[in-house]
Amino acid sequence: MESFPQILFSVWKSKITGRLLIKNDTTEKALIFKTGNLAIDKDIFEEKAFLKHLLKKKILDNPSAKKCEARTAKKKTSLLAAILDLGILSPQHLWKNMEVYAKQELFPLFDLSPLTSSLISEKTPSNTAILFTIPTLSLIREGIYRMKNIKLIDALIPKDAENFQKLTPDHMDQIDLEPYEEHLLHTAGKKNDLQTIISKSTLGGKYTKKALLTLFCLGILGPSPMATPNKPLQEFSVAELQKILDTFNAKCSYIYKSVSKELGPVALNLMEKSIEDIKPHLSQHFQKIRLGIDGKIDRQSVLKFNIIMPDRDTTQLIIKSLNEILAAEILAVKKSLGSEFESTLIKNLETIGG
Asked: Domain range spanning residue 95?
């Protein structure tokens, strides 16, 4: 089951740029992302609905609203410009309220599932057309805490005790946990089951579940990143697939650092050539693969939107390709540095992500 916060995290993790269509049987909404964060385009910003929002929140009164509408019609200008020209709000106050309104329009999506998502354009508006961006990670957190669909929250939280493990993703430095989330993480990270966590938490049942879901969706709490051989591939969610990619990148980075100590700058060329040689055997998702200067794969060059809602075949192809890339890199190490170095490398790689 894929939900809106899970889709958002997948988009952010892959640093996607483009226009995404989110829909189910009753709802359809197009969202714009720029390198993984939500972008608000002035050309599709609903000014009239925003004016109603300001009236409802009593930020504007009726006479001020009518003045804005009159100036918009007379000057052929935007409602936002009219609000500023009339001195009703300062730019800082106006933009703050625009962000609040934009988020409120998105919060209902958090209570819907299942949702489908598809890329309808890989282009985004020019920088001059973007009013502001909303950091996706903060949107995920705020949206989950505002969720009203408790049944959906229950369905999205893993029930097995073994699933509750504290993780240390690459993006951990981009997340400032609240004190109550830190408190919960210490309890949940000890592999306690859900009922034990709730009983030990001071947040109460409802907010404990929301905080747990937040930690899961942000990749801080969850299952072990590596797949177990007996687990059916069709059971893997986007979040799990992203964790597998995180572990893969950690292994690639370790290989690169180890080889760099022996060969210097040649190490990256060695890894790149090993991947180039096996490209014909890799999944289509990896045909434009690039390596960063740290030896990790550039996410923007591979996954994109083809795994936002992965099916069994896609999952199988991606995991198979990741394994083939690692095998090719290890073989290149053996050819350059010998069997003894390769043996030590493999032994150390087994400790990463376990």
From this structure: 4-139
